[in-house]
Recover the amino acids of this structure.
């Protein structure tokens, strides 16, 4: 995984904290991986 800046890490962390079910967490992780590949 590429190094993410602190803001991005915080945004991902906040999004995961806000997610209540596994499906949502899986989607956030998938989105994060997609963003990392594009960067």
């Amino acid at each position: 995984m590429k190094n993410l800046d602190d803001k991005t890490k915080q945004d991902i962390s906040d999004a995961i904290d806000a997610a209540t079910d596994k499906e949502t967490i899986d989607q956030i992780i998938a989105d994060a991986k997609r963003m990392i590949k594009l960067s």
